[in-house]
């Protein structure tokens, strides 16, 4: 194999621009294939950095992301450093907590530390002798004609680099993508949502987690929403989502407490009133953007992956997972087309664009839906209905989040199935419930129901059904 021409001709240079989550993982994928891989990253080496600034502290890792990690032999390591979340824990305004499982016993997502994941992936990439990591290299510009890239160093000097393939993994504000924008027939859309997010840390109490650790904690309050994911150091990272307008209305420590008292009262003693007053003003709220574009490639020279190709709003917990899946999809196409970039790149665009656009749309849809009318009761109700229908017809009806989170069903197919299921369910409901509605509405009009009384029997029924199912 060593001296064979295939092996020899393979020594093409792949430049991965961006050493974030997707770039670092992608470096492993290309290195595994024997390419000469060069990673270029603006920031210094985060493994040496004292303070790591950046977006969200922890993330939900699910099936698609795990499969990608498995391809490069990293799944076990990362999973062992994550915290399983078997269910959501819904916090109502009154402080009541209700768990809703993600699925069967073995189905869970993981809370992983972004910085740690990034470090592990960089270290893994470095174990390949054919990989070189170049930190403090900011891509300034590149030429789609020659493939020549210009990097700026912290001292202001520039460096020119050439590669056979350029892989743009430089995030939502991709510098690589700028050259795509100058070209004809490139589609691009970018939308900032009116919400911002702010991260707050909930410290341990008596060296233990302040809340139950193996859950994704959610406080759904229509326009306002908070989510908390556990960390290995027994803290929780709480992420508050709210319109920028509302963030700006709060200008003093007292107003912060007043706001939390109104919407998230159970969290005040857990985060700590003094910490809240202080931390709310530490950093301004961060923006969230959704980016869709196509094609993802230019000739046989350049391809976009991860947020550079598709930034999605975080309301499905899929941004990183989708970016990691990009790497698998590209890798599979490399197999099918014997690493011929001329054929691989267009095929990657053809296959991947519909799926990435589907998850971008789904995430945006979920954002709009949550904002419109999702309070804790509605959230509980909807998830119970989903799970109940799946229980009744386990093959025919699979909840959308299950297909998205726990399978590698192509995103666009998951959406199609979801629309189809909706039709079937609605038709089923129409026929079977028509009679009941007619009879029932008479009773309902006579005795208007209390939503509390409607929901708790549903919950009991659900628990009974779960007990029946798991022997
Ligand atoms: P990035 O992580 O942005 O990395 C890009 C890298 O490129 C950076 O290191 C940057 O320094 C470098 N770079 C940028 N410009 C240049 C340049 N000119 N030259 C060289 N290098 C450059 N996803 C999930 O799957 N699950 C979640 O639970 C989840 N939660 C989220 C919560 C929030 C609040 C947000 C905002 C996002 C969340 N995401 C989640 C999405 C996830 O963060 C992103 O999808 C993921 O980080 C994308 O990885 P990336 O490598 O493509 O981009
Ligand atoms: C948002 C911010 C619950 C991490 C969507 C669920 C998220 C995450 C949900 C963030 C929600 C919303 C799903 C997962 C996950 C749910 C999901 C959202 C992780 C539909 C660190 N979302 N997120 N859906 O089902 O499929 O639990 O910042 F509140 S994980 Cl918005 Cl599964």
Automatic annotation (TrEMBL):
GO cellular component: mitochondrial outer membrane
Organism: Amphiprion ocellaris
Membrane-spanning residues: none
Keyword set, alphabetical order: FAD, Flavoprotein, Membrane, Mitochondrion, Mitochondrion outer membrane, Monooxygenase, NADP, Oxidoreductase, Pyridine nucleotide biosynthesis, Transmembrane, Transmembrane helix
Domain FAD-binding: start-end pairs: 14-327
Protein name (record): Kynurenine 3-monooxygenase
EC main group: oxidoreductase
GO molecular function: FAD binding; kynurenine 3-monooxygenase activity
Gene: KMO
UniProt superkingdom: Eukaryota
Similarity remark: Belongs to the aromatic-ring hydroxylase family. KMO subfamily.
Membrane topology annotation: Multi-pass membrane protein
Pathway annotation: Cofactor biosynthesis; NAD(+) biosynthesis; quinolinate from L-kynurenine: step 1/3
GO biological process per UniProt: 'de novo' NAD+ biosynthetic process from L-tryptophan; anthranilate metabolic process; kynurenine metabolic process; L-tryptophan catabolic process; quinolinate biosynthetic process
Entry cofactors: FAD
Pfam families: FAD_binding_3
Reactions catalysed: L-kynurenine + NADPH + O2 + H(+) = 3-hydroxy-L-kynurenine + NADP(+) + H2O
Subcellular location: Mitochondrion outer membrane
Function (record text): Catalyzes the hydroxylation of L-kynurenine (L-Kyn) to form 3-hydroxy-L-kynurenine (L-3OHKyn). Required for synthesis of quinolinic acid, a neurotoxic NMDA receptor antagonist and potential endogenous inhibitor of NMDA receptor signaling in axonal targeting, synaptogenesis and apoptosis during brain development. Quinolinic acid may also affect NMDA receptor signaling in pancreatic beta cells, osteoblasts, myocardial cells, and the gastrointestinal tract.
Enzyme Commission number(s) from the entry: 1.14.13.9
Entry-linked HAMAP family: Kynurenine_monooxygenase
């Amino acid at each position: 194999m060593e001296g064979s021409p295939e092996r020899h001709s393979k020594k093409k240079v792949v430049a991965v621009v961006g050493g974030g989550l997707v770039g670092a993982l992608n470096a492993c994928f290309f290195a595994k294939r024997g390419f000469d891989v060069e990673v270029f990253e603006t920031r210094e080496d985060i493994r040496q950095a004292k303070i790591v600034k950046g977006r969200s502290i922890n993330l939900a890792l699910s099936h698609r992301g795990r499969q990608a990690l498995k391809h490069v032999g990293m799944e076990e390591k990362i999973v062992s450093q994550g915290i399983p979340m078997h269910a959501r824990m819904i916090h109502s305004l009154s402080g009541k907590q209700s768990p809703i499982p993600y699925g069967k016993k073995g189905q869970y997502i993981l809370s992983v530390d972004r910085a740690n994941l990034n470090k592990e992936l960089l270290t893994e990439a470095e174990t390949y002798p054919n990989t070189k990591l170049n930190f403090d290299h900011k891509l300034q510009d590149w030429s789609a004609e020659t493939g020549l890239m210009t990097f700026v160093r912290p001292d202001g000097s520039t460096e020119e680099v050439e590669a056979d393939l350029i892989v743009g993994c430089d995030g939502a504000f991709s510098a690589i993508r700028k050259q795509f924008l100058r070209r004809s027939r490139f589609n691009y859309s970018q939308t900032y949502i009116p919400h911002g997010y702010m991260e707050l840390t909930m410290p341990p109490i008596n060296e233990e987690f302040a809340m139950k650790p193996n859950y994704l904690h959610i406080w759904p309050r229509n326009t306002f929403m908070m989510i908390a994911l556990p960390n290995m150091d027994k803290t929780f990272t709480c992420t508050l989502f709210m319109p920028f307008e509302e963030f700006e209305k709060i200008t003093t420590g007292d107003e912060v407490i007043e706001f939390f008292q109104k919407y998230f009262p159970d969290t005040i003693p857990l985060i700590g009133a003094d910490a809240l007053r202080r931390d709310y003003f530490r950093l301004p709220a961060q923006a969230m953007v959704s980016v869709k574009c196509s094609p993802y490639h230019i000739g046989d020279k350049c391809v976009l992956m991860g947020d550079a190709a598709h930034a999605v709003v975080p309301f499905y917990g899929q941004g990183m997972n989708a970016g990691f899946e990009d790497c698998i999809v590209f890798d599979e196409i490399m197999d099918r087309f014997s690493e011929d970039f001329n054929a691989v790149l267009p095929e990657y665009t053809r296959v991947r664009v519909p799926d990435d656009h589907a998850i971008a749309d789904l995430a945006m849809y979920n954002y709009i839906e949550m904002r419109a009318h999702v309070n804790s009761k509605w959230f509980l109700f909807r998830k119970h209905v989903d799970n109940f229908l799946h229980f009744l017809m386990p093959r025919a009806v699979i909840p959308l989040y299950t297909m998205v989170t726990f399978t590698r069903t192509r995103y666009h197919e998951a959406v199609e199935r979801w629309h189809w299921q909706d039709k079937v369910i609605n038709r089923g409901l129409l026929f079977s419930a028509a009679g009941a509605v007619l009879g029932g509405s008479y009773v309902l009009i006579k005795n208007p129901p209390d939503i509390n009384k409607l929901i708790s029997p549903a919950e009991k029924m659900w628990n009974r059904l779960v007990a029946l199912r798991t022997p």
